[in-house]
Design a protein that fits this description.
Blueprint: H1 7-41, E1 43-45, E2 47-51, E3 54-60, E4 62-70, E5 75-80, E6 87-88, E7 93-97, H2 100-119, H3 122-140, E8 143-145, E9 150-155, E10 162-163, E11 168-185, E12 197-201, E13 208-215, E14 221-222, E15 228-236, E16 248-254, E17 259-265, E18 270-272, E19 275-281, E20 287-291, E21 293-296, E22 301-306, E23 313-315, H4 330-345
Antiparallel strand pairs: 1-23, 2-17, 3-16, 4-11, 5-7, 5-10, 6-9, 7-8, 9-11, 11-15, 12-13, 12-16, 13-15, 14-15, 17-22, 18-19, 19-20, 21-22
Helix pairs in contact: 2-3
Length: about 350
């Protein structure tokens, strides 16, 4: 059923619709005005940042050398000449096994050699000399000695113990320096150079320990998680007493020395006839326009090369909400995610992100 409106009713309806439309327009205009006023009042502070071009690493340190102390033959321990924690020199006797039988066999052979010399039996004498070398080696095998200068990290043996061949009784380590193998992502390998500075941080030590990159292979490998890496070797020469072999660490390989940068949001920088400028807000609320030189530093920031010193409060020159930089495409988001993954696997990016 159709309702017919009179002429007067139609006029009232039209006026009502017009009023509603006018209210909507006024509200939208007010919001736009408030947003513009807010953008005009936006300020940015120039701050100092340290930019590091480094590769993040982690792992555990190992002793320069390590010797497992073990018996080469069965026998009874007749002497223990060092204790756990002792410093030893290469060749020092640590443990002696009973070698009575071997010493007897050597003495008996020496007697036979003396008789052979008197009888001038050259062929038999040569054979006995070879046998004597073998006996001397067996006597040496009854000893457990240090093969390098170091510290006895562990020793569990006492006089009277009976050892079987290959029984392990302790460990000797050389802690004059420490080394570690660390994973470096394939994307960062091109940045590596032998001798690069490495900063180590240990949970057991308050401070940073300095080391350096020793080597890295010319071939990569694939880890169980599917990442392609190379195992680089790093080293610490000046080892703090609080840092011991098998301690864990985090660290970074310094590709270049850290740089100090002046950073501010790019919306604080305006352009006038191709020249970059900024407006410094003074304490009295007035502004001072200064010419600046900047370079891109990520998507939303710039690095100030000249014109500012840091700490200044700048007036906004553009509205961030209207900037095309605030709208990141799906492709761009994916690229950012990939960059983040690369940093987690190997280290920080080699330079500022693209503008």
């Amino acid at each position: 059923m159709k309702i017919k409106l009179g002429k007067k009713q139609k006029i009232i309806l039209i006026i009502a619709i017009a009023l509603v439309a006018l209210l909507v327009v006024l509200r939208v205009a007010r919001r736009i005005s408030e947003k513009r006023a807010s953008a005009g009042n936006q300020t940015y502070v120039v701050r100092k940042e340290t930019y590091e071009n480094a590769i993040q690493i982690a792992g555990t340190v190992e002793a320069a050398k390590s010797q497992t102390l073990k018996s080469l033959n069965d026998g009874t321990v007749v002497g223990v000449y060092k204790n756990e924690g002792d410093t030893v020199k290469k060749g020092d006797l640590i443990v002696q096994l009973d070698d009575t039988e071997q010493q007897y066999n050597l003495a008996n052979l020496d007697y036979e050699i003396s008789v052979a010399r008197q009888n001038q039996t050259a062929g038999k004498l040569k054979l006995m000399q070879t046998q004597r070398v073998s006996l001397l080696r067996k006597i040496e095998d009854r000893k457990i000695v240090a093969t390098f200068d170091g510290v006895i990290a562990a020793l569990d043996v006492a006089t009277g113990d009976y050892l079987e061949a290959k029984d392990e009784i302790g460990t000797l380590v050389d802690t004059s320096y420490l080394t570690a193998d660390v994973e470096v992502a394939e994307t960062d390998v091109a940045k590596l150079k032998v001798g690069q500075k490495v900063d180590f941080t240990f949970p057991a030590y308050d401070g940073t320990v300095e080391g350096y990159l020793v080597s890295y292979p010319a071939i990569g490998e694939v880890t169980s998680r599917g990442a392609t890496i190379v195992n680089a070797k790093v080293r610490i020469d000046d080892v703090p007493s609080a840092v011991l072999p098998n301690f864990s660490f985090t660290g970074k390989i310094q590709i270049t020395e850290p740089e100090q940068k002046l950073v501010v949001e790019r919306y604080a920088i305006g352009r006038d006839k191709g020249t970059a400028f900024a407006e410094i807000i003074n304490r009295d609320g007035s502004t001072t326009k200064v010419e600046v030189s900047v370079e891109p530093y990520g998507l939303e920031y710039v690095n100030v090369l000249s014109g500012l010193e840091g700490g200044e409060m700048l007036k906004a020159q553009s509205d961030a909400s209207k900037s095309g930089r605030m709208s990141v495409s799906k492709k761009g988001q994916k690229a950012q995610k990939n960059n983040k993954n690369n940093q987690q696997q190997g280290g920080m990016m080699g330079g500022p992100p693209p503008f």
